[in-house]
Each structure stands twice: as C-alpha cells, then as structure tokens.
Design a protein that fits this description.
The chain has 226 residues and is of the alpha+beta class. Helix content is 43%, strand content 27%. The protein contains seven helices and six strands, in the order αααββαββααββα. Strands 2-1-6-5-4-3 form a six-stranded mixed sheet. It is globular and about 55 Å long.
C-alpha cells in the first residue's frame, strides 16, 4: 500500500523562520504563494514517476534548477543542475539495459516528514541470458574437438572429452528451457524540498542492498559527473 504524509505547516513555518534568521533574503522576497500546492504536487509527481523508472527521470518536472543528486554508496559522485540530473537517469536506464532484458519499477511507500520526502521503491529486472554465450562456447568446442579427431586419429583415445562436451551441451540446453528468474533491487530515494518554493533541491539515491548489486552500482560509478 502507498503511504503519503501530510503537509505539516507548523514544521514548514519553523524551517522558514530559521532560514530567515540565518541571513537570507526576507520572507516577503522569496516566499512562493503556491508553496503548499507545490509540495503536494511534488509528492504526487514522485509517486507517479517512480512507478515509471527507468523510462523517465523522477521528479524532473517539480525540481528546482539547482537540483542535485548523489548516490549514498558513492559519495564522490554528484550531479548538479537539471541537465546533469536528466543525464544521470538516462545513464541509469543504460546501466539497467546493460544487465537486464527488461525492467519495471514498483513504489512501496511514500512518506513525508517536514521538508523531506522518502520514496521506497524497487526495480524488478529480468537478467540478461548469460547462457547463450556458454552455449555458443560449447558448440565451438565441440566443432574444434570433432575437427581434431578427424585430423589426428589418436585423439579418439583421449579420456572422455567428447562425453564431457555432450554433458555440457545437455546442461546448457536444460538451463535454457527454464523460465528466467526475476531480480529485485531495492532503493530509497530521499528528496529535500526547498523551504520557500516546495521544489526538489536534492535527491539522495540509496541502494538498500549494495552488496548484492555490484554490477548495477558499478555501471553507475562509470558515469561522468562534476
């Protein structure tokens, strides 16, 4: 079930006053009259967008131009501005395509607390068929072994290489008939909202089980960033 928080006006007011006391421009110069509406729109947009990953960049339409994105497990990577934010998600889609044949996402829940929105979501992927390469290798080995037997008759007396290759062929064929097993990658997306406009200013993406997702995490680490 999806769970969303409510707009806590008292918390927002306290945050605004704290920022105002810190020396920024006065409230009258920065306050967006549609603040509460923007927060509600951000919540709804993120819930809908996260159900469409990796086809789109979540929250792009409700993000501040200064938005930044970080991966919790890779602190050296930071993407700043709308262009890099969009580019990250384009590359994320490419990384997913690198390790899977198809992928869909599901939203587990959406929780709001003050100026933060936390989206818990999962990516469900069908891993690429690594057996096709093994099957090709076995067929190539069988062909080479057959050629060797015809060329060098004494090879026929060598152990049971032919039997081994036949067993390998039978195994890869059997594995190939099994239905592909889904792979699920769990994420947290933590969004920070601007205290004046209610727009997204920061997105922290967290792998919930990074030790199980080295391939996807590794693909993302290869992305250029500033």
């Amino acid at each position: 079930a999806l769970v969303s928080g409510h707009v806590f006006s008292g918390t927002f007011a306290a945050n605004r006053q704290a920022v105002n006391r810190s020396g920024r421009l006065p409230r009258s110069a920065q306050t967006d009259p549609n603040f509460a509406v923007n927060v509600g729109e951000a919540t709804d947009t993120l819930r809908n967008d996260h159900a469409q990953i990796p086809r789109l960049a979540p929250g792009l339409n409700v993000a501040d131009p200064r938005v930044s994105l970080e991966i919790a497990q890779v602190s050296a990577l930071k993407f700043s501005g709308l262009t890099q934010y969009r580019q990250f998600w384009d590359n994320f889609r490419s990384g997913v395509e690198l390790v899977s044949t198809s992928a869909t996402s599901e939203v587990v829940n959406v929780v709001q607390s003050g100026l933060y929105l936390r989206v818990r979501w999962r990516l469900i992927m069908i891993p690429k068929d690594v057996l096709s390469g093994a099957q090709n290798a076995v067929q190539a080995a069988k062909g080479a072994f057959s050629d060797l037997q015809r060329t060098v008759p004494a090879v026929k007396d060598l152990f049971s290489a032919g039997d081994f290759l036949k067993q390998a062929e039978d195994w890869t064929s059997q594995q190939g008939t099994q239905a592909p097993v889904e792979r699920v990658v769990e994420f947290n997306s933590i969004y920070e909202l601007d205290c004046w406009s209610g727009r997204i200013v920061r997105h922290t993406l967290e792998f919930r089980s990074p030790e199980e997702n080295f391939d996807l995490l590794g693909a993302l680490q290869g992305m250029p960033a500033r």
